[in-house]
Design goal:
- By secondary structure, the chain is α+β, with helices and mostly antiparallel strands.
- The protein has 5 helices and 16 strands.
- The chain has helices at residues 6-28, 186-190, 193-196, 211-219, 349-368; strands at 33-39, 46-51, 69-75, 80-86, 90-91, 97-98, 122-126, 133-138, 147-152, 161-163, 176-177, 182-183, 235-237, 241-246, 327-329, 335-337.
- Helix 1 (6-28) packs antiparallel against helix 5.
- Residues 248-327 are annotated as: Disordered.
- Residues 248-270, 279-288, 310-327 have a biased composition (Low complexity).
- Residues 1-32 form the signal peptide.
Length: 369
Amino acid sequence: MKNMNLPSCFCFNFVLKLTVLVHIFRVTGVYGTTFTFTNKCDNTIWPGILSNTGSPKLDSTGFELPPATSRSIQAPSGWSGRFWARTGCTLSTSNLFYCTTADCGSGTVECSGAGAEPPATLAEFTLGTTGDDFYDVSLVDGYNLPVLVEPTGGSGQCAATGCLVDLNRLCPTELKAGDGGACKSACEAFGTAEYCCSGAYGTPESCRPTVYSEMFKSACPRSYSYAYDDATSTFTCSAADYTLTFCPSSPSQKSSTPTQVTPPMTTTTTTPPPDFTRSDPTPSTSTPGFGSGSGLDMTYGSATDGVPSTYTTPGTETDTGSGTTTTAMLSDGSWLAGLAMGDSTTSRPAQMLTVLSSILAIVLTIVLL
C-alpha cells in the first residue's frame, strides 16, 4: 500500500515545487514584464512593436487601440525593443494597410519585424534578467505623438519619463511632416553629418546639441533629443511592469491652432558650435522626480518655453536615424551602451545574490519536507 502512494505523493511534491518556483519568478521579474498600452488620444491609434535582434517576437507586433481603451502585452525577461503609435491608418485602394505617421510599411496592422518610418516618438526598453531594466523615450527619430511611460510594482529609482508636450504645435516649417501631424528630426530633414552624428561628427565630443535638439529638450527634458544626449534621458527600474499612455494630457492634441517657432535661415559651417546652456534636470538623486521612488513628479514646460530667441549657427545636431540612443554618458563617467541593441550589462550584484539565495532556500526547504 505504501508503494502505491508514491506516484501521487511525487506528483504532489513536483506540482508544489513548480508552483513555488513560478511564484518566485513572478516576484523577482524573471518570469516576465507586462506592458500596458493606454490610448487617451481623441482618435484611434495603432501601436507598433519591434523586437531587437536576438529578442523574441512578442504576441503582437501591431494592433488597433481605440480611444479610452487599453491592452496588455507580456514580454520575457531579457527582452529588448521599442514601441510607438501609428496614426491616420486606413486601407488603401489596393487593400494595403497604411498610416500617415509612423507607418511600418508592412501593409498590415501587424508590423511583422518592421520598424517605424520617421518621424515617430519611440519608447525603448531593455529588460533585465536579475538586474535593472533600462528604458527611455526617444525623439531621435522625430515626434508624432506625446507618450508617458510609468513603471509600477518595481524597485529602485523607477521614475516616469516621456514627452507630454504636443511638439507638433511648435514644429518649425522645415521640420514639419505631411499635414503637420508629425515633426521630423534635423537629421531626417537635412541629412547632414552634423545633424546625424555621423562621419567626423560620430563621437559625443564632436556631435553637440543644436537649436533644434534644444527646442525638443526644453519641451521634453526627460526625452532623448539627439543621439548623444545625456543621462537625464535614461532610466532604470527592477522587476517592474510598465504603462505606456499615449496623449496623456489630452483633450485634443490637434484641436488648437498650431503655434509655429521658425528659426532663421542657417548658414553652413564646420566650426564646432558652442555648448548650449539649458535648464534640464541634472542626474542627481536629490533632483525631484529622479530617484525619488515615486517617479511621478514630472515637470514640463510649455511648447515654447526655452526656445532660443536668437539662432546661433548650428554645428552638430544629432539624430542617428536609427531611433536608438546607443550610447549615453552616466554621471560617474562610464558608458551606457547598446540600450536598443539588447545589451543590458548593468545589474545589481547584491540583488542577484539575494534573489538566488531566496530561491535556493525555498527549494531546499521544500525538498526537506
